[in-house]
Amino acid sequence: MLKIGICCYPSLGGSGVVASELAKMMAERGHQVHMISFGMPFRLGKFYRNIFYHEVEVSDYYVFKYPPYDISLASKIAHVAKTQHLDVLHVHYAIPFAICAWLAKQLVGPQLKLITTLHGTDITVLAQDESLRDMIKLAINQSDAVTAVSDDLIRETIEQFGTKRPIHRVYNFIDNRYYYPRVNESLRREFARNDEPILMHVSNYRPVKRTHDVLEVFERIRKERPLKLLFVGEGPELSKLTNAVMERGLLEDVIFLGKQDDVSEIIAMADVLLLPSEKESFGLVALEAMACGVPVVGTNVGGIPEVVVHGKTGFLTELGDLDELTRYTRELITHQNIRQRFSELAVERATTVFNAHKIASEYEQLYRQVVQGDFQI
Ligand code: GMT
What we know:
44% of the residues lie in helices and 16% in strands.
């Protein structure tokens, strides 16, 4: 049995989801998992045996213009590591977790092993920032092991930092006990008639998601046939998007569901999931859709082509090619036989290549190698 510390953002996107689902998988295997965060990760909102939660509290002493969150986090990690005798600390996202974990390790000692998982924008966006770049490099070099969620992210990391240290690709995973094909007919009827296919987009509505492309594709096809579009999630671009929907007179057919804790049943209602991102190191939502039997139409960028196989589990286009995005989406909602074939292949790929048990075993093996010291840095 291992004692594993996990640090992640509690509410932000896929890295927190992956970290929380991994915590559950490890706890089910009998390991003791200690989550260290400033809030309860949203996928861990109830009691799970073998999972413990340690909240980071930040001092608000009056001299601070900016409360020193990173110092408090490092100090909490060190405290949990010492009192719980952690074997390994697994941090998700380089900033600030890997740096704070390294700082904590200075207090605890070298017996605390540190694994950093790079998720995407910690490299593709934050490493462009001169004030963070060297810190990210330090975090990568000082970790006992580094993993990244796609081959493309490994390539980007090497390109950015010229690092020679091995970075291991461990794909994100999906638990098919929760994500599987099913349509709740009465739920579906609340959003669409039988003759109306449902297009869906789920994201954190950052500019990189290009949510206006989703709307454009929808509007083009909506001119030809009845259709519904469901937007799930929330984020900074959402109000602009809502205004655009209103201005174009599409409010009747575009539904905003907002932030949802459990998207498995919602995604399963969709006929096509749209992911026209500009950057995407993996695209966890594409995997969630595939596991539910929903083909994905997206862009051929970053790690998306490692998840979605063009012409088999979805279609991929060049960034911003709205004609192709529309054509492929139309094809999937028009030809039921093609959609059905894609749906079956999507489920098969999700449940084999990205199988939760398989990927959890990869992490478990890495933890043991790092703890036993037989891991090549
Ligand atoms: O910065 C973000 O977009 C959020 C970030 C996260 O923390 O979830 O997303 C990244 O990590 C996910 C989980 O590994 C990946 O599925 C997303 O593709 C990745 N986002 C980007 O690369 C834009």
